[in-house]
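Sample A.
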Amino acid sequence: KVDFISITSIAEAKSPLYKIQSIVLFALGSLFHAVAYGNIQPLLIGIVFFLAGYLMLRFAPLEGQYERDAFRIIFAVCWFWAGVSAIYANKLDDVFQNYSDAVSFYYLASGEARGLSLIDLRVISEGAGAIVFWGWIYDLFSSLGFAKERFIGITANTFFVSMTGAIAVKIVNILFGSDEVRVKRFILIFSLCGMFWLFAAIHLRDALILLAVTTLVYFWVKYLDRPRMIYLLFLAVASVTAFLFFTYLRTEFQLVPLVMLFAGVLALWLGRAGLNINRLWVYIFIASGFVGIWLSAYSFELDFYDIWRVGYEQYFDLSVRQSQES
């Protein structure tokens, strides 16, 4: 019997358990990929993505031992489930992967959207940003001699989810002051989240959205913890970028930066008084941001309610269609 106490005691143990788990899960995932695709190209792609992420986490500002631990175990777990997913898709003709948005994203990213701009692609799919991003990755590996198979995009999703875990570890460190027990528990709980397994193992945009939103959260937490002008500038760049591009990942997510802005203002208003910069300048900056967002929305004729409504209706229709197909 495995209960929460035994799980947390495993997380707190100073042993190479994470490394053993990573090796075993990565080996099993590699075996499943090889069976599903009939070659070792998925393994080579997986190694490239893993080494790239591990190398990135060797340098500031991403550097950190627990960040690397999180990336390693989460990548191994998600790689394992991506292998299971590949078996279902290629050997069992899984309807949720072969006859839904997942296969549409794959076809568009691997070549069907070639020559289309981001704006043109937005007319075809609300996930245009993810398609373009995947397309760059497919083209990169194609130039190296790899076939544009689905495992490239799915391994990219595994990478996105794993990097999300590493960034989330940094957030935990900020919130709890580098508490090793909390960090280890968080890594284990994150790696056991079934929703994240789905994000990583299926060719959908949710993995990239998860990484983008978590990154924006990190900038907010960093600033709220240490409200300095440099962090405010970083936050401003991240927030404006998110406002402009989140709509190309999922339409209603354009509202996310605005919601975070409201929550951030409330946190500043109720937070500690001893800020390193004058609050007046913070409020002036935030007010300017609201005005800038309103002007942008007016210029592009954005209707936020309509954005939310259309996104909800599309998601609801997709859910009904997939339920009927199953």
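Sample B, a different protein:
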Amino acid sequence: VPEVASGDPGTNADSAANADAPEPAPEVGPEPSSTPEPVKAALEFQKENPDDLEGQLERFQAVLTLFEGKPPAELARQSIAEIEKRWDAEASKVLAQIVEQVDKALDGAEFALALTELKKFPTALRNAKWDKQVEELNAQVAGAANKAFEKLEVQAMDAADKGELQAAIDLYTKAAAYGVAEIKARADESIATLKEALAERQSAAAVLAERGTYLRHWMGLASFITKREYQKALALHARAKLGYKTEETLAEFQKEEDDINLLLGLFSKVEEGLLTYKKGKFIILGNLKGTFEGVENGKVLIKSKEGIVLPKSLDRLSDTEKLR
């Protein structure tokens, strides 16, 4: 049997046929499952809001609740753990820096400054855990302020007992600025009481000081009154009154002024009063005794028992005679 050549026409024909046949399509695996929308939203929010840790936690906790027992829940757990770890690290770092400033403030007994520093803890890092730590630090500062206030109050009370009221007020004023509401309320109450006592003392001292100058004024006033120069007395009184301020002295001034006006009014009415006398009425004016005969040219006419009419000038009458 002759050997079949490698170029056997039958073999060549098969090869040609195979060459013309189309290549088979590649195998396609199962289509990957799509990411759930809540997960996409959480991841997108985390990317766009890297500093909003609270917002990130809320979204991944929602994913955890929705997909409990499913693959997305594991992703949520991991993300939550990472966010909480980052939150604690950042909060711890920031609070450590704040505490450093608080300690410096406390060293100088600047309690209000210490409380102000604690208020600087960022809102974005606040949660139940870190709020608790900040509140504990606030309580420590308030405790230190209360201890300082107890010592200061002893000093203030001692100063008040010695009569050093302004010094006591200054000490309580310092305490009121500690920044602790309870301490401020107690200090303000003590300050009000001390200021009232100080005002009373200053008023009493002012009254005593004014009494001395008022007595000197009265001596000058009396000289005018003695000479029956009532208008001059009133003018002097009005000028002097401008230099006095205490209620007690001003009341005394008013009383004296009223008395001078009373004298002035009475003596200006003497002639009018005499005109109401009935002619023939018995009258005594100084060393003159007799019956009233009337008033003529500023003189009172008196008839003695001998029948002699004697004149008495009105401006020569004494104050007692005028009042009579």
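Observation for Sample B: The first strand starts at residue 282 and ends at 285.
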